[in-house]
What we know:
This protein has 13 helices and 13 strands. With 340 residues, it is an alpha/beta fold. It folds into 3 domains: 180 residues, 3-Layer(aba) Sandwich (Rossmann fold), CATH 3.40.50.1980; 103 residues, Nitrogenase molybdenum iron protein domain (Rossmann fold, 3-Layer(aba) Sandwich), CATH 3.40.50.1980; 26 residues, no CATH class. It has a 6-stranded mixed β-sheet, with helices on both faces. A 4-stranded parallel β-sheet has the order 10-9-11-12, sandwiched between helices. α2 packs antiparallel against α6, α3 runs parallel beside α4 and α6 packs parallel to α7. 39% of the residues are buried.
Amino acid sequence: MSDVARILEDVRERGDAALLEWALRLDGAEPRLAEPEDGVPAKAILALAGAVRRWHALQRPADLKLEVAPGVELTRRWVPLASVGIYVPRGLVSTLVMCAVPAQVAGVERIVVATPPAGAGAVAAAARLLGIDEVWALGGPPAIAAFAYGTESIPRVDKIVGPGNAHVNEAKLLVSRDVAIDLPAGPSEVVVLTGDGTNERVAELELAAQAEHGPDSVCRLVQANGNLERALAQVEALAPEHLVLLGEDVEALADRVRCAGSVFVGPWSAVAAGDYATGANHVLPTGGWARAVGGLGLETFLKPVTVQRLTAPGLAHLRPTVEALAAVEGMAAHAEAVRR
């Protein structure tokens, strides 16, 4: 059993007592509700929140209704999750906004935040600006365990979202057997693909910005050298969190990219603008997950419910189909269930 798995199991079994021991051991501080501190850039936080709110409000899926056959009606409606736990890495108030605002737009009833004690005051202050008051100064796998299994102090949630380091991502993947998660997000990744007329200084700036996240950041420069198909294939194989396209020839590939969390086109499309200001979500898939999933969106905080309504004539119309398939599969009770 890994150290992360051991922490998760301990918190699951012993609740607050284990949470206290692990928090003291890992962070040197007791779990507590964080007190907002002064000095956060309120105007910038609210500007980002406004952009995130506008962009994510447009993403609401449509409810559907269809009469499949006379007397057979299906509806599919989207409903918000009841509760969400947001993990915010140390001091990253922008990540709080990226997770909390879409949850609010979706209509999630309970939003609880956990973040390492160092920097918790700034995260709590940003949360207060958004109208969120449950912010725990609690980091790493113990926080994920509390979200997943609940303790005497922190009730469990229906879904865990937010990026983190390797230990947080391991914890999220392990608890995904018991609670829904968004995706493993982190450490940071960027691939800069350069082509004709690339401003090398811009490429250097983008690589340096992602490297700033920490020594485990993945920062790659790929040069097309006139072979766009090979370059696109190379990028798709990497499936990066962020993909920057620089140079007129490679910029034309933007609409063909399938495997990237977010694509930034041209010398003025700084990844940092996406991190802090455009309103697009910066919680994105890493570790190759961009081959199959996208980043956070409004649908992360919603779930579809299907409703089926049949009349007596409608059931009679479907009965021969049900009986035939039930006979093939050896499900006699299924066939009998439609004879009423």
